[in-house]
Amino acid sequence: MAWTFVRRGGPEQLDAETLLAKARAQAESKAVPASRRPLISAASLRMVVEDVFYIAGRGVFVTGRISAGEIRVKDPVVVLHRGRRRATTVVAAIERSREKLDQAKTGDIVGLQLAEITRREITSGDILTSPM
What we know:
mainly beta
């Protein structure tokens, strides 16, 4: 049993193979070109902020897992809020399980003390990245 398809608005009859070939050709013509954005290098930082705290006498701390790259004390970071740059700051300290670290790498769950930033400038869900 062969399937036949009738195009709306016209007498053209198409079999299944012809219809699939036309659909593939149309999909290929509408293909979105690959992004020209550079790939993230191994050294660039990416961390999604899970929680934000203000500790009196110390400043703003953010916690989260580093999903790419590494970070060191005194490295600059950019705060992205919904894909837009919100602030630029510096890492004043890195802590993991109440232990102070000089650096953290991919996979580490850490707390970062950020200098020169207020609690209102960063929220949960923001992304910390290296400046480009």
